[in-house]
Design a protein that fits this description.
Layout (H helix, E strand, L loop, with lengths): L1 E5 L10 E4 L1 E7 L2 E5 L5 E4 L8 E6 L5 H15 L2 E6 L3 H11 L8 E3 L3 H10 L6 H5 L6 H6 L1 E2 L2 E2 L2 E13 H6 L8 H13 L3 E3 L10 H10 L1 H7 L9 H15 L6 H6 L5 H10 L3 E7 L2 H7 L5 E4 L12 E11 L6 H11 L2 H11 L15 H13 L2 E4 L1 H4 L7 H14 L4 H19 L3
Parallel strand pairs: 6-7, 6-8, 12-13, 15-16
Antiparallel strand pairs: 1-3, 2-5, 3-4, 8-15, 9-10, 11-13, 11-14, 11-15
Helix pairs in contact: 8-9, 8-10, 10-18, 18-19
């Protein structure tokens, strides 16, 4: 009889191998002869990967804690950590991303914007094709994917999809006996009545990025075709339509609808939105105008006495209500040292389960049909109902739609609008400067 008895392992210093020794014993009649024979059994182990930490950057400083809380679940599920960094200064954030240019020092994943702002990074060749993250999660809004797809490649996943609406304080409206306006004249009367009651109509800040909000909001309610032609290189900033919209904006400022002009022009990131929300909650102001992502800030303030409405068109000849849309994307660095882990993160982010948790935490409208909208606050539910019934004209927000790159028409227009708020007599000269950049941009990059 011959058998092998396995001895305890003798581990040698050999990378990823285990070596064992066995005894070979032979038994003969009347005697026992034991012969020792070393027999090597080599087991090769898979190499062990060091722990991976993905870097996630965002321009939304107020959302950092929410990101961190949700990313803990991803780490528990996969063992992959996600380190979150929030930027206070949006201009610095943009400059940093462009400077790092998709190299190893750039974040693995980061928030950005759609439209021409996204096209600029695509043109730099620094973004990963994230189509597999969408493909792995059917049920998404096709229109959302179309907004971030260029030449057959999808360059972003969704962080949020928002309608831009007016948030109003119910108690302030009750004080003046007002309801959400149906016409522009009704809206102006509400602003006048609020002033008489000692209440600031709007609490929005105007510094930094916010300078585009009211001039473009007014423009799309007067001349939406012109607005879209402008952002496609088919119209001029010196057109009388632009002057009319900017003059109305300046007149509203002069009438006190935006509060103290010097103060609002100083109200910049990161305090602008929280300050505006606090003024609303304290009944110092009656309205703010932002994307419906503002609901998360209202919740953080513990403020519940609010409603929403879509600002009425100014031009009564328009057959459809205009509604500005914002899709906030998350993009991935093509040069990430962790491409597999990055894609795993993006697939997890786009799953219905994660979308539901994120949207519930932020009061966002989900972008996957498998996720119910029943959790949304009543004012947002009402806006969705109005949108479904009236089918307004969806218009891309100016921040995403306007030209950037080296000519940066967008930022030039924003700074011009901020100056015009105090000095409307400069409309012609400032718009001529914007148009000079606009012409140069489209001469180089072609008409849209």
């Amino acid at each position: 009889m011959v058998y092998y008895a396995t001895l305890p392992p003798r581990v040698e210093i050999v990378p990823t191998t285990i070596v064992q020794t066995a005894l070979r014993t032979e038994t003969l009649p009347g005697t026992t002869i034991v012969r020792t024979e070393e027999r090597t059994v080599v087991t090769t182990l898979p190499p062990t990967k060091p722990p991976v930490t993905l870097r996630f950057w965002c321009d939304k400083i107020g959302w950092v804690s929410r990101y961190k809380e949700l990313f803990k679940e991803f780490e528990q599920k996969t063992g992959i950590k996600v380190e979150v960094t929030g930027y206070y200064d949006i201009d610095a954030y943009i400059a940093t991303i462009k400077t790092l240019g998709g190299g190893p020092e750039a974040p693995d994943v980061f928030t950005w914007w759609t439209g021409k702002t996204l096209e600029e990074l695509i043109g730099m060749g620094i973004l990963m094709d994230v189509g597999p993250a969408w493909d792995a999660n059917p049920g998404y809004m096709k229109g959302a994917r179309d907004m971030v797809t260029y030449n057959g490649k999808t360059y972003a996943v969704v962080n949020c999809i928002n309608n831009w609406v007016v948030v109003y304080d119910k108690s302030c409206f009750e004080k003046i006996g007002a309801k959400p306006p149906k016409t522009w004249d009704e809206f102006i009367k509400i602003c006048e009545d609020l002033k008489k009651a000692g209440i600031i109509p709007f609490a929005n800040g105007w510094a930094s990025w916010q300078g585009f909000i009211f001039p473009t909001e007014i423009l799309v309610r007067m001349y939406p075709d012109y607005y879209e032609d402008l952002n496609a290189g088919k119209a001029s900033y010196t057109d009388p339509k632009m002057k009319e919209a900017l003059q109305l904006m300046a007149d509203m400022g002069k009438e006190g609808y935006f509060g103290d002009i010097d103060y609002v022009l100083s109200l910049a990131s990161p305090t602008e939105v929280p300050t505006s929300v606090k003024m609303l909650a304290e009944d110092k102001a009656a309205m703010i105008y932002y994307g419906d992502w503002i609901a998360s800030f209202l919740k953080s303030e513990g403020y519940t006495d609010w409603g929403m409405f879509i600002l009425p068109n100014i031009n009564p000849k328009l057959d459809k209500q205009s509604l500005i849309i914002e899709l906030g994307p998350i993009v991935a660095n093509k040069g990430t040292p962790h491409p597999e882990e990055t894609m795993e993160f993006l697939k997890w982010w786009m799953s219905p389960e994660t979308i539901e948790k994120w949207c519930k935490a932020m009061d966002f409208v989900p972008w996957n049909e498998k996720v119910s909208t029943a959790f949304l606050p009543e004012p947002i539910q009402n806006i969705l109902k109005i949108v479904a019934e009236t089918k307004p004209r969806a218009i891309l927000r100016y921040w995403e739609a306007a030209p950037t790159k080296e000519f940066n028409v967008r930022d030039k227009f924003i700074s011009a609008a901020q100056e015009i708020l105090k000095h409307p007599e400069k409309i012609d000269s400032l718009m001529a400067e914007v148009e000079e950049l606009n012409k140069a941009y489209w001469a180089k990059y072609g008409k849209g």
